[in-house]
Amino acid sequence: MKNYQIIMGVFMMLWLLSAGCSDDKKASPADTTMGTGDTTSDSLSDTADSSSTDTVSDTTDSATESTTPGFTLVSILPAAVNIGVPQSITLQGTGFQAGMTVSLVLGETVFELGGATVDSVESASVTIPAGAAISQGLYNVVLTLPDTTTATLTGALTISTLPPPEVSQVEPALAWMGLADDGVISDKTIQISGANFVNTPWVILVSVDNPDTSYPASEVNFMDENTLVATIPSETAAIPAGDYHVWVTNPDRLAGQWMLSDGITPGVFEITASAPPQISSIDPVQNPFNEVCAPFTVTGLHFNPLSTLSLLTADGEIALSVTSATETQIVATIPADTLELGLYPVLVVNPDGQSDTFYAFEAKSPTDGHFTGNFEQPASALNVARERHAVTFGFDMNGGTWLYAAGGLDAQNGVLGNVEAAAVNIYGNVGEWRLLEQWQDVANPRVENSFMTQRSGHAMVRIQNRLFAIGGNTWDTSSVLNAQNAALDTIETATILGEETRVSAAVPTRTADGALPTGTWYYRISAVGPSGEGLPSNEVQLLNSGGALQVCFETLANVASYNVYRSVAADGRHGSTRWITSVTAEEGATQCVTDDGSIAPAPGFVSAETNAGGTLAAGVWIYRVSSVVDGVESVAGYRTPVSVDAENATVALRWSPVVGATYNVYRTNAAAASVAGDEETYLVAEGLTAVSWVDDGSNLGNELIAAQNGVAPLPVGSLSSWQTLATTLSTPREGAAAAVVATQSGTHIVVAGGRSDGGPDNYLSSVEILTVQTDGSLTPPTVFTESLQTARAFLNLASSQGMGTSPLNAEPIAAPAGSHIVLFAVAGDESFSSPAPNDGLMTIEAAILDADTLTLGAWTTQNADLSAGRTTYAGGAAVVDNYLYALPGVDNEQDGVDTDGTDFEPVPLTSLSTRFEIVASEPISAPSADFLTGFMSSNGGFVVPRSYYGTARVNSHIYIIGGNDGAGPVDSIEKISQ
Q: pTM of the entire structure?
């Protein structure tokens, strides 16, 4: 139990050191190390002139108020406790004596905890009993020696009635330190499962062997209250090899440790110095569950002849019989009827215990080509209902997966240019969609990151970290046929921001007196260049300091300015920085910026307690406090939750002062059952001169004035600003289809069909190819001699190059020399009938692309088509293993408006998906009409019939995003396991 307390205490050290500085009390902590995300450990010392960039310099003098020299209280561990369970807290300081007692003080209220258990002159503990008659709030902790002398640590302990986070699982529980010179960042993306997570927690690793050393996750993505996706900076933070405990801290400072299923044993996360096994592919990726799968081959690196192989289930592991194993390949057998239908992560474990997991092998139906189950509709929804948009997926610098939905038409038939993105976790679950933003200028620090030209009916593909938006139309062509609405021939590009856009920042130092209150301050720096703002630097911190602080950073080339982000209040918290200023880029390898507090922060150390009386409704209320200096209001401070009951319906707030400020208080407009972490709060009191305020419920929130959240740094998954390329298509195209093919000569984009305007005719049969250069530019297009047999738009273009490959491959695998690629043009619309309903095509064409010469053979109409008169367009298509799936689209559509004056909407098909087996195999000798077998019905039906949607295949799932359900654009998405 004692070790448990120490580990938990060290994890909370950061909070406590900042809390100990409230009301300008000064701290001088003992020698302690604390990682800051970019260093092995950051020393806390009493020397303000240290030259080490890995040192957090303490410029203050004393941690506590004390009436006896040598008697100090430095920290309280943990910094927040739930009063519903007995909780032991650890006290650290100097001059402790037997018989010492502990008190908690909040205003005039004193709660006696009684005698402390003194372990040494520097360490003691005391227990807060469950259900103690103590109010929630932020307490001072007072130690009293037998001779009545005292030591006080101000604002050190939060008492809460809210539940702390619970951490039940961490996957994978291993990260490699990586190699500094291999050109690959080996930081590890992990998934954390549990309960009571609040948007957005802090995730940290605490060393098992040296519990005063800890490292925060560099990024945390909040999926929902039960799931987090975090990036462990194993390489970029140079985390030493060893075992670590995993902690999650909610914004209210309540924390939970990863515990195993017994609820007693802490889980262990390993940082390893030796390379772990790395699975790159499995073959096959699926097999009928009732058939033997042999050989089942796992390919990768750093395997061992004694490595074990297993499939993971919700209840454990299914060990496989390994027939052979080398450093790069493991061959095993999966017996028939071992698995049920579904997806199974593949686990390789080396003899030293290191492991890697690949997502995932599929035990599929014995009926070839069937999906696993039916489409399902996740709770995650687009911010903007859209149709005729484009969708693709990509990977951030940490290997995290993202879906991108761009442009299209909204519910008012407005042409969109904005882009939204959502993270996808290792199980294929989709997180919250967010509209992507970029930097514009100081007056407009955040604007939508939109196309240079708004467009709908365009195509979009990704190659490496670069997205390409191709063609489309700036006009609404969904309801009125008009040949004057010409299509676009332009191509735009944006990159998924990566490590190359980040500056490296050093630990701040105190340089002079200033207006920053004493506390813990976090900073991040980002670069702004021709392509917009990059990702922020590593987060750097200075503990127990104030006044004027200087942050220095390494500069980047071709940068116009740098943005400075700072935590919002003196009780600084990881991941909470907000923009405060921009500075012009200077020449030189290093640049520094000084923050003297003239851009005032919010008040820190806000506490809330309940008192008898008042009219606030029972439940949880959220408060935020801002400062106003010289008429300028700060960003609102950290959310402070307080739980109110019927008898105690008055809330008393306190906070630490900001120089020269008055204060505004914001509050939620209704009581909630729990804390979400992103609640909107509204002005309830303004112009306060005191550092306290009592809310008895009589003040109504002004819903016209919400608290200012400030401007956060760009998160991972963000894009650079869109740029229009010099290269254009050979002809303007709306409703064209595009596919990526990779050959030994490079990566190429094939664009087929479309229409040249918004009229009923002028549909295109031409096909062109563009090659992507190393700098992201495109070569001028080459128009193939061979055109489609039937001109068609709003079609799909699929490639046989995806056959049999893992959906987790980030990039297409280059076709071998001498090979061929088969392209499929699926369905579409050849003209628009009017006034009769339009119903599109049912045919599929195929052509052979020579991978060596990039010449295209003749397009041939396949004998296999969308049978039973099922003409369609504006649907989706995907190649999975040896099957081409044609997903439902438009059944019929009219232009113009109906009798009530509203636009006609397309009527989507309600039938199931269609699949065709691809029989093309090397060597392909001549054009053929039978690359596909006949029509076969699939088991995948949409939850909501729709057309004009976006399709993406990633992480063993196919995603259907947005579209038109027959009444207009929708914001819902669907997914199905392959």
A: 0.79
